[in-house]
């Protein structure tokens, strides 16, 4: 193949990817909801996530821009970042409490995420619910 043919093929692939996935430079809006099931309170934070970006990145960006939202993670060798606390409230083994990750899609369907904040890739308009609860 000539250089021109390779460049043309590469350009076609780029156009194909862009058309099938939209504008990869555009962040997608999501909503992060922090729900404390013991006090029946919730806080809502609008934010964005990069194209195919992970939830952890969106949370870090939110924490940097909105000082009313804070969180801490702990690195697990097998499973990656583990959400420890949100807005100063940490789960404990003694109290049998933890932060659960739920996702509500744009069509209203609710799912329990089978991955954590370091692996979950939010979609456009999703509501990410961080729920403090007992196990």
Automatic annotation (TrEMBL):
InterPro entries for the chain: Cobalamin_Transport, Transcobalamin-like_C
Signal sequence extent: 1-22
Keyword Signal carried by entry: yes
Ranges for domain Transcobalamin-like C-terminal: 60-133
Residue stretches in coiled coil: none
GO biological process terms, semicolon-separated: cobalamin transport
Stated name of the protein: Transcobalamin-like C-terminal domain-containing protein
Species whose genome carries this gene: Synaphobranchus kaupii
């Amino acid at each position: 193949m000539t250089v021109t043919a390779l460049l043309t093929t590469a350009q076609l692939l780029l156009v194909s990817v862009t058309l099938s996935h939209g504008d990869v430079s555009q962040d997608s809006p999501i909503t992060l909801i922090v729900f404390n099931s013991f006090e029946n309170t919730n806080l809502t934070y609008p934010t964005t996530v990069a194209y195919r970006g992970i939830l952890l990145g969106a949370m870090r960006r939110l924490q940097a821009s909105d000082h009313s939202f804070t969180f801490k993670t702990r690195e697990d060798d097998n499973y990656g970042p583990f959400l420890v606390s949100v807005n100063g409230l940490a789960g404990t083994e003694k109290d049998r409490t933890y932060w659960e990750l739920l996702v509500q899609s744009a069509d209203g369907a609710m799912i329990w995420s089978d991955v954590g904040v370091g692996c979950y890739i939010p979609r456009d308009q999703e509501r990410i619910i961080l729920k403090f609860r007992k196990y």
